[in-house]
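A.,

Following up on our hallway conversation. Structure tokens first:
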């Protein structure tokens, strides 16, 4: 079997991939590298949860002190999508890589509830459209039994959930905490390393979160800088 077939196998583990990409003459070093990586996976899982704790402590404490104003729509939708991803990862043997996903689901629910009751309940039409499309996209997920297709759909829905937060970050960049989104991006990277298997159903969610959280950080920082320059010129 050639390397291409191994890569296309959605059930491939990282140790299998490494073994078939590295030359046989280097098999000993391959074995050492795989063994080290496998032994560190539980630590990666703990580190990911730790990064999540730090990120959400900063975020929730800032929310309770009215320093920032999270968008309830995004966080409540993320509760649903993250919960589904957690179930998929557990059933597919995600191991330590799924720990931070379960933790994130609980925190998303808490932030969503706080935001829903604490802040103004008037929302932009674009926010309602984003969430409506995302919720409608749940229907195909309910009809499919394929975990890979389910994971792709849920990751896509989760990305749609960033719509309201991205809009708010553009117009009100000081209402969000860039450091928390940055830590979350790092958290998902470490949780990716902690996964026991690297198939699409397992890695598509953390990789999409690395990108989307990073996008929010970049948007917040750019908008803050531009607003600062605008205020100075007035």
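Then the amino acids I'd put at each of the 234 positions:
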């Amino acid at each position: 079997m050639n390397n291409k077939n191994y890569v296309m196998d959605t059930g491939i583990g990282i140790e299998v991939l490494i073994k078939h990409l590295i030359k046989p003459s280097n098999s000993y070093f391959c074995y050492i590298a795989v063994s080290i990586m496998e032994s560190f996976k539980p630590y990666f899982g703990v580190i990911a949860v730790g990064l999540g704790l730090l990120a959400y402590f900063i975020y929730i404490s800032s929310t309770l002190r009215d320093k920032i104003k999270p968008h309830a729509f995004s966080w409540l939708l993320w509760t649903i999508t993250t919960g589904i991803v957690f179930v998929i990862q557990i059933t597919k043997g995600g191991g330590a890589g799924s720990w931070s996903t379960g933790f994130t689901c609980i925190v998303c629910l808490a932030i969503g509830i706080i935001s829903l009751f604490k802040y103004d309940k008037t929302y932009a039409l674009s926010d309602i459209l984003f969430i409506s499309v995302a919720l409608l996209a749940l229907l195909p997920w309910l009809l499919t039994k394929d975990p890979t297709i389910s994971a792709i759909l849920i990751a896509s829905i989760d990305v749609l959930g960033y719509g309201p937060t991205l809009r708010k970050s553009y117009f009100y960049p000081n209402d969000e905490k860039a450091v928390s989104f940055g830590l979350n991006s790092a958290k998902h990277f470490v949780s990716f390393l902690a996964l026991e298997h690297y198939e699409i159903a397992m890695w598509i969610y953390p990789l999409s979160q690395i990108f989307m959280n990073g996008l929010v950080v970049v948007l917040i920082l750019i908008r803050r800088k531009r607003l600062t320059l605008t205020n100075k010129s007035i």
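The chain has a mean pLDDT of 82. Curious whether your intuition agrees with the design.

B.
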